[in-house]
């Protein structure tokens, strides 16, 4: 697959990932954190704010293509 096409597909995937992830994370937060203390909110949003990076890193690695020898 050409690099330009791979990067285009990867960019679209990252945008979709961020939008879906933000929607799901906020829906879970609204449903479960209603009466939680402030530190519960802080911990939840800190973890969910960093967790999306893992699948995004995998997409970026795929976008870079196979390793050059």
Model description:
This protein is mostly helical. It is 81% helix and 0% strand. It is built from 3 helices and no strands. α1 (3-32) runs antiparallel to α3. The mean pLDDT is 92.
Sum up the structure in keywords.
single chain; 69 residues; mainly alpha; elongated
Sequence-ordered SSE layout with sheet pairings:
Blueprint: H1 3-32, H2 38-51, H3 53-64
Helix pairs in contact: 1-3
How many helices? The count is: 3
Computed structural class: mainly alpha
Total number of β-strand segments?
A: 0
Terminal CA distance: 18 Å
Q: What integer value in Å does the Rg equal?
A: 16 Å
Percent helix among the residues? Answer: over 70%
Strand content: under 5%
Number of domains: 1
Shape: elongated
Show unreliable segments: none
Largest sheet: none
Instruction: Output the helix-strand order.
Output: HHH
Mean pLDDT across residues: 92
Keywords: Membrane, Sugar transport, Transmembrane, Transmembrane helix, Transport
Protein name: ABC-type sugar transport system permease subunit
Pfam families: DUF2842
Organism: Rhizobium fabae
What is the compact description of this entry?
This protein has 69 residues and is mainly α.
């Amino acid at each position: 697959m050409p690099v330009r096409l791979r990067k285009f597909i990867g960019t679209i995937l990252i945008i979709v990932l961020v939008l879906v992830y933000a929607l799901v994370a906020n829906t879970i937060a609204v449903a479960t954190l209603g009466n939680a203390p402030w530190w519960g909110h802080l911990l939840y949003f800190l973890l969910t704010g960093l967790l999306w990076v893992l699948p995004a890193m995998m997409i970026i690695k795929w976008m870079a293509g196979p390793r050059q020898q």
